[in-house]
Predict the structure.
Amino acid sequence: MRSKFVGRMCTLLPSLLIAPLLAEEAKSQGMFPDLPRLSAGSTACENALWIETPLHRQFMQSKRVVVADLQGPGIITMIHFALPERMAAQPKTYRLGRELILQMFWDDEESPSVQCPLVDFFCDPAGERDRLETALVNKKRGWNAYFTMPFRKSARVELRYDGPVEPGKELWSLMPCYSYVLAQKIDSLPDDFGYFHAFWRQELVNLGKQDYIALATKGRGKFIGWNVTVRLPGRPGYPVDENEKFYIDEESEPSIEFQGIEDSFGFSWGFPPEENTFLLTGWFPFHNEGAAAYRFFLHDAIAFQKSLVVSIGFGKNEHPMFREQFSRPGNELEISSTVYWYQTEPHEALPPLPPVDKRSPTEVNWKDREELPDLQDLERRGVKLHLRCGRPEKELIFAQEGYSAKVIRGFAYTGWPFPIFHTRADEQEVQIILTVPAKRRGILRLYVIDPDHFQGGRHQEILVNDKSFGEVQGFDRGKWLDLPLDESFTQTGEISVRIKNLNPQSNAVVSIVEWAEPKEKAPPIPYQQQ
């Protein structure tokens, strides 16, 4: 009876091969039909880190602490880490980050099967999350994991601190203050049970040149989930057009490919404005307007017999503008991921983690990468007003007295690659009002760019004071539109500019608006992307 009970219990959560969950029996007896069944198995619990535990299980004597050392066979069913004392006392000034590494070793192996920052293991990237609820991990004043982790001979769970603080009371206050590991001790494990693995990495990558590799492993196993972050360091916004690719058993082309990063985590048309943390999928904002998302594949795990490579990159049939734009220096995406999978042992050694100072999210100020026009150049060209539509903070960067601009309609978007990473957009039309001295002649200059070729490319009509100046499309690389206006357009001192969308599947955009009154005819200087 014991082996039957253990078999059912362990297939409730991921194992190497998805076994039936006794659906008919569950319907008749409830969700957990085996819960009242008695078993001869026993439960083991190992404590660490708290002052009641031996010194060698605290951060008083070493930067590496074994929090559990179990003899098999058995199955770890829960791991808990309590909030550090410093975080509880000073939540606004201290937060545990990626300096603390979680490692797990099965059956006396030398190379860990789990290797990642503790916080990222719990879908808490860089430790920036206060609360999280999923089916397998959660956080609120502590981190808890419920992955099924079987072992046949032994299981060793370790923490390794890579920061500068030496062992002692100060380090103890910065580390989780208490931990326990719960495991079921059993007589044997089914032959088809694999070993739990998890691995974290982060990379600043030109995704137009190469894909981001989240996992590359050999052996027999199955992929059961991951958490991923994506951001464009140095600016708000990020693209969501990346595909998630699974190359199974040495495939040259992925047999499983999700088209769009938000769709692979259960959303669409970008991540929604508000965070959503469901049991198996979810997303929330991450570090200066990036995104963090997670998904667990419990009933649809991705099996492999020889090898598995999991990557993130642009699709083979995606518009070529994505590869072109995100191949350029300054347009690197920073992606991080923790992947969870089961496989047979032995496994190939996991790649070493980067140094602790390379694990934090990259800090770049978007202003340092921005290319603004020179004021002398503006004056030479007779520019009286220069509006950067959708630019963070200040959009109207130059206006002489008597000149101004106001966006009436259109949302700001800043997720395009540099140098023109901003725009105003609207599904129907963008509307902008310019104020100039009455009865002035001048040139209205509009810069439009369509770097993501959204929904087959943007197609729009330009109207000034309700007069059409024609249609424009095919401006993926960017295009200046110079519109000479005489006194009839400035009788009242106001100029109404409308960029009307003509592609019902797309939207209207405009990135730069200028008003110039050149003293002498001089060719305009086009804005060329680098």
Q: What stands out?
A: The chain has a mean pLDDT of 91. The two ends are 70 Å apart (CA to CA). The CA atoms of residues 21 and 270 lie 35 Å apart.
